[in-house]
Amino acid sequence: MLGKVFIYVTVLLSALSVFAFLRANKTGSKKLSDIGGYFYYGTVAAVLASSIYLLANILAHNFQFTYIWEYSSTELHDYFLVASFYSGQQGSFMLWMLIMAIVGMFVYVRTTDKDHHALSMGIFTSIILFIAVILIFKSPFDYVWETFAAENLPVGYMPANGRGLNPILQNYWITIHPPILFLGYSMMAIPYSFALAALIRKSYKNWVDDVMPWTLVGTGILGLGIMMGGYWAYETLGWGGFWAWDPVENSSLIPWMIAVAFIHTLIIQKKTNALIKTNFILALLTFIFVVYATFLTRSGILGDTSVHSFVTPGAIVYNLLIAFQVVSLGLGIFYIVIRFGDINKYIGKKAMSPTTKEYSMALGSIVWLALAAVVIIGTSWPAMAELFGQEKVAVDISNYNKFGSIFAVIFLILNGISLYQRWINSKISDVLGKLILPTAASVILVLVFYFIGLDDMNFIFLMFATFFTIVTNLDYLIRNASKNPKLIGAYVSHLGVALLVLGAVVSGAYSVTKQVRLKMNETKSALGYNFTFEGYKQIETQFNDREKYKYNVKIEKEGKFNVASPVVYWSDFNERQSPFLEPGVYNKIDKDIYLSPKAIEQEIDIPKIALRKDDIEDNPIDKSFKVSVVTFVMDKNNAIMGDRVKLSTVVKFLFPDGSESKDTLVSMLDANTWEAEPSWKIVNGSNLEIAMTKLIRDVDNIKNTKAVLSFKEAGKPLPQPVDVFTFDVTLKPFINLVWLGTLALVAGFFVSLSKYRKSSKKDIAEE
Amino acid sequence: MKLKYIIGIAVAAAFVVIAVMSFDSNKIEYADFPKAKESGKVVQVIGSWDKTENYHYDSDKNEFVFKMIDEQGNSSKVVCQGAKPNNFDVAPMVVIKGKFEGERFHAHEVLTKCPSKYEGQFDELKGAQLYN
Questions:
Q1: pLDDT digits (tens, 9 = 90+) for A310-347
Q2: Given B54, B59, B125, which is nearest A599 (Cβ)?
C-alpha cells in the first residue's frame, strides 16, 4: 500500500514541478522557478521513499509482493538482494526513475544561473513523470493476491520463499553493470532537455557550452556500462564473446554512437559556428534512441529474437511506451521544423573548405552515423517486421561486421588526418608534409604483418587504418601530455577506438577452438598446451541451495603452468537437474586461454573397442584373441520396450590357433543415447567377459554404424567410476586490446571534461 | 532547396537502400518444422523442449540432442553442436537457428531467454506457504 502511495505522490509532485517550471519559463518568474524546484525536491524525496521502501521489503524477504517473490529469495547474498531491486521490469523502471531524480538534482543546482534553467528542468522532470506513470500500471508493489486475483489467494498470503535470482546472474557484475548503464541512459536526457529548451527559447548558441560537460560524462558512463556488459558476458556468462550484436545489446549502443557523433559536431559548432541544426537533431536523437531502446527491450516485441528482452508488459504499458516515443520524437521534430528557417539566419554563409579540420571531423561523423544507421536498421528489422504484420525474421549479424569493417577504415583514417589539419583556414600543403611520416610508419607496420601471414585485403586496410590512428594520436598525445594535459582526452579516446577495433578484429578472426575430454588426472595436449584435469573443489559451502564446484585444469607449456577453473554450479533454481556452467579464463598478456565447460560425466574405465560390421580387432585387454562383428539382429515385433531398444549383436572370436567361435550379445539400448548397461558374457576359451554397450549410429551411412564392445576380466568387479570433464579450449589472441581500448576510450571522455570544467578561454585558444 | 541538400539526401537514401538490401538478402526467416524441412534453408524455429523425452549430450561427437515441439505442435529431433545451453532446463521457450539434414534439425545456434526476464507463474507459488 505504502509503496504505491509513494509512486502516486511522485506522479503528483513531478507533475506540479513540471507545471511550475513551464510557467516559470513563460513568465520569467524566479519565484515560480523556485517553486518548481521545491516540487522537484519533493519528487526526489518521494522517489527515494519508494525506492527505500522497496529495498527494505526485499531485505526483509517480504514475498507478499509479487515482484519480490519473483526476483529474490532468502538464500540470496546481501548484495544480490540489492540487485533483485532491478532484476525485473518494474524494478528497473524504478532504478531508472531513481537515478534520473538524482541526476536532475545536479542539473538543477548547476544551471540555476542559466536562462534556460526552468525550461530545461521542466522537460527533464516530465521524463521522470512519464516513468512514474508507467510505474502506476507496472508496479513492483502489487501483492501476490492481486497479481493472481483469479486464484482466490487469501489477503496476506505469504509465499515461503521467493523464486530467487538465476544462478548465472549471481555475479558481482549484476550489482555494477545495470546501475551504470541506467546512469548513462539518464544522463542522455540532459542533451535532450537542453536542446529542446534552446529550440523553444530560440537561443541556438549558448546551450552548446552548457551541454558539453554533461554529454561528455554521460557518454563516458554509458560507454563504461556497455563495456561492462560485454566483459561480464565474456568473463562469466560464458557466451563466448563480448558482443553478440543481439538487438538489445545494440539498442544500448545506438544512443551511445549518436552521442559520440554529437560530441564531435558540438566541437565543430563551438569552433566554426556551423552544424547548428545538426547538433539539435543529434542531441534530440540521443535520448529518443534511449526511449527506443526502452521500447525494444521492454515491450516484448523482440521476444523471439533477443536473449535479453522482457516478456510483454501488458497493453497499457505497451501503449505508454509507444506514447513515450511518439511524444519525445514528435516534440523534437515539431520544434526542429518550426525553428528551421529561424536557425538558418544564424549560420555563417561560408561553406566548409574540404581541407579543414572541421570538414574531416564532419565527414568522419557522417560515416560514424552511417554505421549507427546500419545498427539501427538491423536492430529494428525484427521489431518493424512484427509491427507491420510481416513474417518474422532475424538478421544475419555478419552484416554488422561487413559494414563496420569498411566504415571503420574511413573514420579511423579521417581521424588521423584531422589531427594535422587546422580549423577554418587549412591548406593541403600544410598537412601533406606532416602526413608522410605516420603514413610510412603505418605502411611498414602493415608490411611486417603481411610477411607474418596477414593476407586478407579487408584486414590489410583495417590494420593500416588502426595503425595510422594509433601513430598519429600517439604523436599528439606525447607532444601534449606535459604541455597541455587537458587536451589529451580526445587522443586517448581515439587511441582506444583504434586498439578496440584491432583487438576485436584479431581476437575474432584468429581465435581457435578445440574440444578436450579429460578423465581425472589425465593429460592431453591441444593447441600447443598440455591440459590436466586435476579434480574439483567445492566452493560456497555455506549455502544449502547449491553445490558449486571449481573444476581445476592445469595448463602447461614449456614447463610453465597455470590453473584455470571453470565453475560447475548445481542449484535448487532448476532443482539441480543440470548444472550451470561458467567458463574459466587464464589471462595472458597476448592472449586468453578460455575454457568453456561442456559436460561433466562419470565413466567407468572399461577397456572397449568400436567395430563396424566385418572389422577385426584385438581384444583391448590382453590381445589373446581378435573380435569381429558379424551382424546385428533386431526383432521387428519385440524390439522396442518403452524407451529401450533390444538389439542382438552377433560377434565372432578368432584365436591365434586358427579356431573361431561365435556368440550373440543382447543389449537393451536407451532409445535416446543408444547406450546400454553391460550384460556380461564369458568368451569361451579365455578368461575375459564381453558386452555390447553402445551403438554409434551413422544415420547417413548405415555401413558406418559401430558397436562398442566392452571387456573385463572374468569374475572381477568393475573399477570405480572416474570423473570425466569435457571443455572447449579457445585461444583468443589480443583480446586484452579490446579491454584496454575500451578503457582508454572511456577514460578519454573524463579527461576531456577537465577542459570544459571552467571552460576558460585560454584552453580553447591553445588548441 | 539547395543543391547540397538534394545530394545529401540522395546519398543518404542510397546508403539506406544498400543497407536494407544487405540485411534483406541474408535475413533468416522463422518457420515451423514442416516448412523448414520443405525449404531446406537455414531458418529459425520457435518452440519448447519436449520434456517427455530426455535430452542428452554426446561428448564423443560434442552434440547436444533434444526433442522440440514448435509453436504449431510439430515435433522434431534437434541436434546442436556443443553442450547444453545454460538455462535450458528452466527456459519455457527456445529458439533454434539452423536447417534440416535428413530427419534431424541441425541447429548451429540455440537461444534460451536471458533468465532475468521471466515473470512468475501461479503454479510456482504453490508448495510451502506461510501466513502472516
A1: 677 778 998 999 999 999 999 999 999 999 999 988 87
A2: B59
pLDDT digits (tens, 9 = 90+) for A237-254: 766 688 988 888 899 999
B2 interfaces chain A, CB cutoff of 8 Å: no
* All domains in chain B, ordered by first residue: 29-124 (2.40.50.140)
Runs of H (alpha helix) within A541-591: none
Q: Specify which residues A143 forms β-bridges with.
A: A65
Mutation for testing the A interface, residue in B117, B130, B131 having most A CBs under 10 Å: B117
- Cβ A377–B23 below 8 Å, yes or no? yes
Q: Which residues does chain A have within 8 Å of residue B57's beta carbon, measured at their own beta carbons?
A: 598-599
Query: Residues A527, A729: contact at Cβ < 8 Å?
Result: yes
Set of chain B residues whose Cβ sits within 8 Å of the Cβ of A599: 57, 59, 83-84
Going by the DSSP 8-state scheme, the letter that residue B118 receives in this structure is P
Q: With contacts defined as CB-CB under 8 Å, which chain B residues touch A515?
A: 62
How many CB atoms are located within 10 Å of the residue A560 CB? 7
Calpha distance A759→A572 (Å, rounded) = 57
Q: Does B122 touch chain A (CB under 8 A)?
A: yes
In a domain, A405, yes or no: no
In a domain? residue A12: yes
| DSSP annotation string for A700-730 | S-GGG-EEEEEEEETTPPPPPEEEEEEEEEE
Instruction: Write out the residue range of the structural domain in which residue A544 sits.
Output: 513-600+727-732
Cell of A701: 551411412
CB A606 within 8 A of CB A595: no
Query: Could you give the ipTM of this predicted complex?
Result: 0.81
